[in-house]
Amino acid sequence: MLKRIVITLLFSVAALPGWAQMNMGMPNGESGMATPPPVNIGGGSISLGAESERSNYLRGGFSFEGSYNDNPFLTTPPRSDEAYTVSPYIAFSMSRPRANWNLQYSPGFTFFQHFSSENQSSHNLSTNLELRLSPHVSLMLQEGLVKASDVSGQLQPAIVGGVTSASPTETLLVIPPEAGFISNTAAGEITYQFSRNDTVGASGDSSELHYLHLNQLSGLFNSSARGGQAFYSHRLGQKNYLGMNYGFEDIITHPLEIATQVHSPGIFYSFYFTPRISISLFGAAQYAETSGQGFKFAPTWSPSEGGSFNWQGEHTSVNASVARTISTAGGLATAARGITSSGALRHQFSPNLIGTISEVYYDSDTLESLALFSNGGRTFSTGASLERTIKKHLDVQVGYTRLDQSYNNIQVISNNSSQNRGWMSISYSFERPLGR
């Protein structure tokens, strides 16, 4: 799973010497087209205006968090506990006239007050590269690797490639108790603007979800997915984008080895009120074929539709999306079809106080019904936090998360699947400029 990260880093380092010679702007100024959200692998951002500025910096620090969870192990009766987490981190960001590169890594060490046998460690590594190969060709590469046990922390907005992303770990549908897992996602996208108002592009993606102790998680399954898409986008005026795309995804669950191939021809529309405020809609007809366990299930057609809203302001940022589509298995026995939604809002009340609220909702059913295995269910999480800057490099944060889910035939969560978690953390950070 680290192989793609190494390749990305080698590509990035090799490109560094030439970046300073390039010009990020389009020759005709405003003629540069954006990649509409329905086909953009970058996802939604809720970074505030000042946080989105890119510079050459080495950043680092650490945080100490104390938390209380009324049911961290999803047991009946519930067993509450306090936990303490230490998380150092280091981040590197580099900007050139035609390139931006971010790399960050954060390990974590969690110690439980009463259940020391559940002590755990985690790792979170991400990298993001945006490169203008020519005045009309752009390339984006990104990779994320998470090894963790506390899944509730993955449901909150996260820093991905130096940008605060509204999307949680996308490969998880079912949230197990404190159980180790590895989630690895990678994607690449290239776009070519061949005329003033026309762009074509192609992208590929890969994801892995692997539970470290699957034999202890009855009813859950590992999964992997590989896919890609091609798209054409036409700009109507300066604010309206209309396009079509075709996507393919190959989803496999392990150890059942049930494979689903999904073909998705569709259309999309995006409207940009301003460069930082947009609304998007998409629709597709999805064709899915599933086989495995000695069976070849009947192919299915199903509609797919959804929309998103993104507002990235100086003091307020909002990202919200909802979609009905076929997704990765996320712990279920086969690929899933259902409704997913996520939303996040960040607001800067004062120069030293920022608040965030977020929600994640999944309501999914497996494409095929298999005896003895879960045929789907729902997951809902909501949370809020406040971050206060005490000094230039010292911050304090308080927050709360509520998790509730319901799935049949998944024994580890079927009896008592809700939990409430509150935390308070203090963090120290530093930054050093690199070069000019």
Task: Summarize the main sheet.
Answer: 18 strands, antiparallel, barrel
The residue fraction in helices comes out at under 10%
Shape call: globular
> Separation of termini?
35 Å
* Count of folded domains: 1
Count of individual helical segments: 2
Beta percentage is over 45%
What string, H for helix and E for strand, traces the elements in order? Answer: HEEEEEEEEEEEEEEEEEEEEHE
Q: Rg, please?
A: 22 Å
What is the third-level CATH name, the topology? Porin
Count of beta strands: 21
Low-confidence residue ranges: 4-30, 159-164
- Mean pLDDT across residues: 83
Do you know the CATH architecture?
Beta Barrel
Can you tell me the CATH class?
A: Mainly Beta
Based on secondary structure, the structural category is mainly beta
Give the arrangement of secondary structure elements.
Layout lengths: L2 H17 L37 E13 L11 E16 L2 E14 L7 E15 L2 E12 L9 E3 L2 E3 L15 E15 L2 E14 L10 E15 L3 E15 L3 E17 L2 E16 L2 E2 L3 E13 L3 E12 L8 E15 L2 E14 L9 E16 L2 E14 L3 H4 L4 E15 L3
Antiparallel strand pairs: 1-2, 1-21, 2-3, 3-4, 4-5, 5-8, 6-7, 8-9, 9-10, 10-11, 11-12, 12-13, 13-14, 13-15, 15-16, 16-17, 17-18, 18-19, 19-20, 20-21
General description of the model:
- With 436 residues, the chain is mainly beta.
- The protein has a single domain (3-433), classed as Beta Barrel (Porin), CATH 2.40.160.
- Helix content is 5%, strand content 62%.
- It contains two helices and 21 strands.
- The strands form two sheets. The protein has an 18-stranded antiparallel β-barrel. A two-stranded antiparallel sheet has the order 6-7.
- β13 (277-292) and β14 form a beta hairpin.
- The longest helix is centred in the N-terminal third of the chain and has 17 residues, at 3-19.
- It starts with a helix and ends with a strand.
